[in-house]
Design the sequence.
């Protein structure tokens, strides 16, 4: 927001300062535009994060204790073998979910964006996003119905004479549930990336002698790389922090960071300091991956 | 299958003279016919242009040669071999795309090497051929840049290099200079022409710019509504158009609609709807069955006089509506007594022109106008 000087001004107003917008007007615009959301973020995101960071430095704190920062004991606890194994398992689950979503989502997004008739595209996308409109809790319960020992999946398997599967309360069930939850996000992001793909590039590749598979790996995938990175990161982060799917589908065997944190605050083990330290580590890991993406994304953007 | 097509060909000896042949090619998109029975043969080493207004099917025709479209009917041959069932990646033709279609995730060097690497040529050969072609288009110093870091003209050169490095039988150019500004376009026209002469390669160019087509091509195919109107050298197309459309589309012209009044061995007498009698020299293409006709006179073939001239044919009286000074010539609009508006181009070194509104006399020689069948078939 800049204020132009009045059309007729006396000579005394023609000092350099008089033509510059005043301090108040210069900051009023940004303040009005960013103020409400900024305040919201400050009160509900920045301050709580700082509180969590402070709590993470207090060992063995329980509700009602006096907060008195005194060291990094909680962080040492995070990296003790038992808890570290939980972190590694969570990372593994998140990576697995990401790969599953990418593997399942790319062909779908490619088909909708490149191959399907144009007038169907919005409808097809809508069909894919539709599951997002139902409650995630409901969707997860639906998976329990499907995957439980006497559930839909096993009755189909036994009807056609195949051995039944015991996957509920195990890692595969968590992977299935999380992939199902996050696949629409992956498809949406990949779609928006592939939709921008210039068909002339594919024709140019064919023109230069590349077979369709060569064109796919040498042109389509590199062109969609920003979308692949963004979609993968989103799915990775959300599945790393997912609580409902591991809780309801994973059973006791697949403890994840999210559940571990939950237990420190609301579960039986109640250790706010340890829970905060776990949260800080999780926030750090997520921030790091976002930073990596931004850096990678930036360098690829300047090269283009 | 390819072998069979070659042997089945009716003119096996002629095949070797032509790099591209289209035989009654049709292309239908969702019930709309974009190309209707296009036929032409392009000789080896020829610079052949397909010229027409937008939507005339010229780009589709080029895409049929490149293989991005398959003909709904008819046949496309390259070097005498039927290409109908050959996908683009196995055709001996390379394309310079309208917006260049450079791979923006690769450097200039990798863009150019793409085709050679696909063919799995050896490292040293790829290096040598890419360097060679970079030199050819004067882009040696830009090898490690990315396409986004280049200007329009530089991208154009990279696109050319990327196609030429594969040493195709035919180079296809889809409006190659369309995205460049006028000055750069003129410069690239000269370079394209030099490249064509030095390489001796068959060039097939699609353009809507008649001047570009006239100045670069050995032969031009003028297209309209999916059909070929005329194929000929630039001179033939300009001086001896076969249809009113060609006369009107290539260069400026004045058209008079009328009918044939009488004819003798060497000339035709045409009476226009407004009552003018125009004497036209008979051309070999003239068919005596034609009755309704359109006479075309180029603006630069018309002479202006302040007093009635002594010539007996094609002298008409009119008034100068306005004159525009254009440096090398003066562009005049003259309204005839019979009502027609004519454009006339006069060299500026002639005597000063009368003022707007003053009476004038126009004349042209019967051999400087041409009578065309009113309805082209």
Sequence:
């Amino acid at each position: 927001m800049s204020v132009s000087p009045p059309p007729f001004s006396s000579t005394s107003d023609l000092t350099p300062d008089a033509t510059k917008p005043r301090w108040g007007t210069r900051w009023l615009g940004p303040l009005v535009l960013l103020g409400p959301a900024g305040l919201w973020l400050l009160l509900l995101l920045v301050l709580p994060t700082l509180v969590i960071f402070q709590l993470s430095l207090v060992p063995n704190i329980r509700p009602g204790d006096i907060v008195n920062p005194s060291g990094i004991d909680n962080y040492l606890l995070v990296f003790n073998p038992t808890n570290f194994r939980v972190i590694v398992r969570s990372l593994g689950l998140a990576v697995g979910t990401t790969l599953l979503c990418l593997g399942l989502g790319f062909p779908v997004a490619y088909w909708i964006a490149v191959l399907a008739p144009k007038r169907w595209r919005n409808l097809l996308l809508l069909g894919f996003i539709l599951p997002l409109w139902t409650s995630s809790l409901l969707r997860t319960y639906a998976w329990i119905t499907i995957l439980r020992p006497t559930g839909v999946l096993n009755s189909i398997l036994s009807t056609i004479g195949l051995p039944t599967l015991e996957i509920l309360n195990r890692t595969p069930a968590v992977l299935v549930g999380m992939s199902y939850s996050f696949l629409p996000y992956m498809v949406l992001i990949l779609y928006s990336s592939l939709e921008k793909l210039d068909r002339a590039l594919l024709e140019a590749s064919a023109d230069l002698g590349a077979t369709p598979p060569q064109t796919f790996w040498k042109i389509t995938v590199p062109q969609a790389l920003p979308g692949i990175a963004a979609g993968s990161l989103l799915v990775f982060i959300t599945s790393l922090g997912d609580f409902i799917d591991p809780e309801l589908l994973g059973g006791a065997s697949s403890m994840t960071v999210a559940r571990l944190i939950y237990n420190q605050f609301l579960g039986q083990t109640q250790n706010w300091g340890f829970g905060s330290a776990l949260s800080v580590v999780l926030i750090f890991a997520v921030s790091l991956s976002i930073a990596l993406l931004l850096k990678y994304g930036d360098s690829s953007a300047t090269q283009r | 299958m390819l072998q069979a097509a070659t042997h089945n060909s009716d003119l096996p000896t002629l095949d070797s003279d032509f790099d591209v042949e289209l035989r009654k090619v049709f292309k239908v998109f969702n019930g709309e016919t974009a190309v209707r029975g296009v036929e032409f043969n392009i000789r080896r080493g020829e610079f052949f242009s397909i010229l027409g207004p937008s939507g005339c099917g010229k780009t589709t025709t080029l895409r049929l040669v490149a293989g991005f479209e398959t003909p709904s009917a008819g046949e496309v041959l390259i070097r005498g071999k039927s290409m109908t069932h050959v996908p683009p990646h196995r055709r001996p033709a390379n394309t310079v795309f309208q917006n260049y279609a450079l791979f923006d995730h690769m450097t200039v060097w990798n863009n150019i090497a793409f085709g050679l690497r696909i063919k799995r040529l050896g490292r040293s050969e790829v290096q040598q051929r890419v360097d060679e072609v970079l030199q050819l288009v004067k882009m040696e110093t830009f090898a490690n840049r990315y396409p986004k870091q280049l200007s329009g003209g530089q991208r154009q050169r990279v696109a050319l290099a990327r196609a030429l490095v594969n040493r195709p039988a035919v180079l296809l150019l889809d409006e190659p200079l369309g995205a460049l500004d006028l000055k750069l376009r003129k410069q690239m026209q000269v370079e394209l022409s030099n490249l064509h002469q030095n390489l001796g390669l068959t060039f097939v160019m699609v353009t809507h710019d008649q001047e570009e087509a006239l100045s670069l091509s050995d032969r031009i195919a003028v297209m309209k509504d999916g059909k070929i109107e005329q194929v000929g050298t630039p001179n033939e197309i300009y001086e001896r158009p076969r249809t009113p459309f060609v006369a009107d589309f290539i260069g400026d012209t004045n058209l008079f609609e009328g009918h044939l009044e009488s004819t003798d061995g060497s000339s035709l007498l045409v009476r226009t709807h407004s009552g003018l009698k125009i004497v036209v020299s008979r051309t070999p293409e003239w068919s005596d069955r034609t009755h309704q006709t359109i006479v075309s006179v180029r603006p630069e073939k018309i002479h202006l006089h302040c007093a009635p001239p002594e010539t007996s044919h094609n002298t008409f009286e009119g008034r100068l509506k306005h004159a525009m000074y254009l440096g090398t010539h003066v562009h005049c609009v003259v309204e005839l007594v019979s009502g027609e508006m004519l454009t006339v181009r006069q060299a500026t070194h002639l005597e000063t022109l009368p003022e707007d509104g003053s009476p004038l006399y126009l004349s042209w020689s019967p051999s400087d106008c041409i009578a065309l069948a009113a309805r082209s078939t």
